[in-house]
Amino acid sequence: MVAASGKSLTQLAVRHLRRRRSALLAFVAISTMTVAALLTPLLPLERPDRTQTDLAYSAPTIPTGFWVAGLSDDDVSLQKLWPWDRGMIHLRQAIFGDNVLPPLMGRDGLGRCLMSRLLWGARMSLAVGFFAAAVSLLIGVTYGAVSGYVGGRVDNAMMRAVDIFYGIPFIFVVIFLITVLKGRAAGAEDVAGLNSFVFFVVVALIYWLTMARVVRGQVVSLREHEFVTAAQSLGATTVEILWRHIRPNLISIVIVYLTLTIPRVMLFEAFLSFLGLGVEAPDVSWGVLIREAFDVLNPVQVLWWLVFWPSLFLAVTLSCLNHLGDCMRDAFDPRTVT
Amino acid sequence: MIAFLTRRLVWVVLTLWIVFTISFVLMRSVPGTPWQDERNLPPEVEAELREQYRLEISFENYWSVLGDCLSGDLGPSYRLLDFRVAEIIAQGLPKSALLGVVALAFAVLIGVTAGAVAAARRGHFLDTLLMSGANLGISLPNFVIAGVLVVIVCFRWQLLPPAGWGGLRELLLPAFCLGAPFAASIARLTRTGVLEVLSQDYIRTAHAKGVHPRVVVSRHALRLALLPVVSFLGPATAGILTGSLVIERIFAIPGIGSHFVQAALSRDYTLSMGVVLLYTLLVSLMNLFVDISYRVLDPRVRAW
């Protein structure tokens, strides 16, 4: 007789995910995008804010030569970047010199290289997605865990509050909040940086509701298990039980919802930037690029590349994230895993 | 049932009140006044105006503005000459409402059909195709769909006008773009719902007594499978209202969505308050309606 070897749900889930080629593909695509965004300063691209008005709206062309002589980045503008990015730019200059790739994806109204702006924009879009999702995770998990574990009247009141928040069309409140906070920030020294920060926080504050509900549901069912009673009888405090015993059981479900929250946050960022309420110049994001494309959309000269490339990047990234999240939800669902 | 309705209506009022309070405080914490882009006013005049237009955060102002809103008087617009907020809403709402209803109808029609077909052809090529489409639809913001369609349909093929308002031709494209992401969600919900229901005993009974497979799906399975879709209509309404901010702007539709962003940015307090309250009311009522129809559709949920 062969003893049945036990496998944890996580092991099963990983195996299940590996077998689904589309999930693997989505994962590879997202990783590539993230790495490319992180290493953008290292890539031989034109500066995203380098204007060449005589080259405005040049369409994407098949390049004749590989290298184009570009201008080197002057040190003054580099001061604004983070030291890490500055280091990468210096490294790039050491490797490639002043050579940059030709504008494979065309140029915008100020003659800026679209490919470069897309990659620098990816940094912003992805950063908003990951950061805001992480903050919403922190709030949602804490709120849901406390509500579910404490139970009773507290639970009831906390969940009622979530119900009410769900009923509020938050976008309108957010638009107020952003105008308020940006108005406040207008006097500060580093306006652009502060605005971006404000934006990150505001977006993060509204996506914790679903996470709170999901986590609460899970905690309510976990609370009844014997291992919690055992820990209680050993004299563990509430915080200890929540952290040591409940938290590990929440990880799978939290990862799934985190993966599904990131694309929603990124959509929201694009939406707000499109309305002119999100990321502001000189920062770039995909939403900003799409808005710029719309501003010059006209039937006489169809500048398709300005709409097409940012839309494609956004679409591929978001659908990969959504697909990966769906697959993970299936993989962690004990009913579908065999 | 009456107790249920009363309880829910109390919740609606409570939500409206909370939104009113948040908006009241937030709007008035913005530095500056609605008149700041004109010549600088003498400080005395500005103080007088702030007093007159209740721009300070104080209980007195709070109660008086709340009282006005309760009596149905949203006041004059602070920025648009000679317009009262009620007039602006009366002009914009029918257009926005028509757009939203057509978009929702598009979403339900396309979504339910696609979802049911995908479920009936589970695992086949058609299923994969439809569900990939749905995944893409969920991931795309409506302005991206609008952008691509405007370039292709309006500029390349010149089938439909790219902007404006008036006839059916102007309505078609914006309504489709607005509804498409929700059609995608509804398709996924329908497919999951139908698949779940199809494994139940009464469906096997229907098959066993020789009902045509198409009739099994369309008549027996869909009714129960549509419950998740019905409960999705609440969030969908909220989403469509949000989406209309962007779509109305892209297609130059003179609805209230386009007014709102402008109003919030230019500190038109009365107009933005009016729009926020209106939208909150709409979303709350839609949620209430969803709850009621849920109880009507599902014989198992009969506890009022």
What do these coordinates show?
The complex is a heterodimer of chains A (338) and B (304). In chain A, 68% of the residues lie in helices and 1% in strands. In chain A, strands 1-2 form a two-stranded antiparallel ribbon. Chain A contains 13 helices and 2 strands. Chain A has 338 residues and is mainly alpha-helical. In chain A, helix 2 (21-38) packs across helix 5 and helix 2 (21-38) packs across helix 13 (304-332). Chain A is elongated, with a radius of gyration of 24 Å. Chain B starts with a helix and ends in a 7-residue tail after the last helix. By secondary structure, chain B is mainly alpha-helical. Chain B is flat and about 85 Å long. Chain B has helices at residues 2-28, 43-52, 59-70, 85-120, 125-139, 142-156, 168-198, 201-208, 213-225, 227-250, 256-265, 269-297.
List keywords for this structure.
heterodimer; A: 338 residues; mainly alpha; two-stranded antiparallel sheet; 13 helices; 68% helix; B: 304 residues; 12 helices; 0% strand; flat
How would you summarize the topology of this molecule?
The complex is a heterodimer of chains A (338) and B (304).
Chain A: H1 9-19, H2 21-38, E1 68-69, H3 75-78, H4 83-96, E2 99-100, H5 114-150, H6 152-167, H7 170-185, H8 191-206, H9 209-223, H10 226-233, H11 238-274, H12 286-295, H13 304-332
Antiparallel strand pairs in A: 1-2
Helix pairs in contact in A: 1-13, 2-5, 2-13, 5-6, 5-8, 5-9, 5-11, 5-12, 5-13, 7-8, 9-11, 10-11, 11-12, 11-13, 12-13
Chain B: H1 2-28, H2 43-52, H3 59-70, H4 85-120, H5 125-139, H6 142-156, H7 168-198, H8 201-208, H9 213-225, H10 227-250, H11 256-265, H12 269-297
Helix pairs in contact in B: 1-12, 4-5, 4-7, 4-10, 4-12, 5-7, 6-7, 7-9, 7-10, 10-11, 10-12, 11-12
